[in-house]
Amino acid sequence: MRHNKNFNHLGRKTAHRKAMLSNMACSLIEYKRISTTVAKAKALRQFVEPLVTRSKEDTTHSRRVVFSALGNKYAVSELFRSVGPKVASRDGGYTRIIRTGNRLGDNAEMCMIELVDFNDIYGSEAKKKRSRRSRRGGAKAVAAPAAAEATAEAAAEEAPAAEAVSEEVPATEAVSEEAPTAEAAAEEAGDDTEEEKKD
Question: Which has the minimum average pLDDT: 11-25, 30-44, 60-74, 112-126?
C-alpha cells in the first residue's frame, strides 16, 4: 500500500527516478533553461531548489552534499561559481516554469523550466517611470512654453534662409512674387465680406 506517499513517482523505480532528476538538474545548472514535461519540471523543482540554497555558502560540506545529489563535478563547480553568488539575495523560488503547450506525439503537457536570475527577458527590465497627467491642464502649461521655444527656433532658422533666397532672386522677380500674394490676400478679404453678406 502507498498510504500518504505524496510525491510523483513519474512511472519509475527509485533508482531510475533519482538518476533522471540528477541528470536534469545538471542540465538545468549548465544551460540555465531546459524543456520537459510539467510533471517532471515540478519534480525537478523540488529536487534542485535545496541544492541552489546550499550553493549560497561555499563550504566543503555544502559541496559534498551537492555532489552526492548531482554526481557531476562540473555541474557542482558551475553551481557554486556562477549560480550561487547570483542568487545570494533571493530567499527562494530560484526556478520558473513556463508552459509551452502540448507535445504532438502523446499530447503531454510541455513546459520550459529555467533559473529565474539568468533570464534576460523578464528580470532585467527596469520599471519605466510613468508620469501622471492631471485633467487641470498641467501638461498643457508645461508644453506651451516648449512649443513657443520650438517655433521661435524654427523662425530664427528660416529667416537667414529667406534672406539668402532674396539675395539670389533679381528685384523684378521679387516684386512679381509679392504681387500675387497681395492679390491673394485681397481675394480672401473679398470672400470674407461675401460670407458676411450672406449671413
Answer: 112-126
DSSP 63-125: HHHHHHHH--HHHHHHIIIIIHHHTTT--S--EEEEEEEE-TTT-PEEEEEEEGGG-SSSTTP
Report the relative pairing of strands 95-102 and 109-115 from DSSP bridges: antiparallel
Q: Which CATH superfamily is domain 14-118 in?
A: Ribosomal protein L17 (3.90.1030.10)
Parse the chain into domains and list their residue ranges: 14-118, 138-198
DSSP 127: P
Parallel, antiparallel, or unpaired for β 95-102 and 33-37? unpaired
pTM to 2 decimals? 0.61
One-letter amino acid identity for 34? I
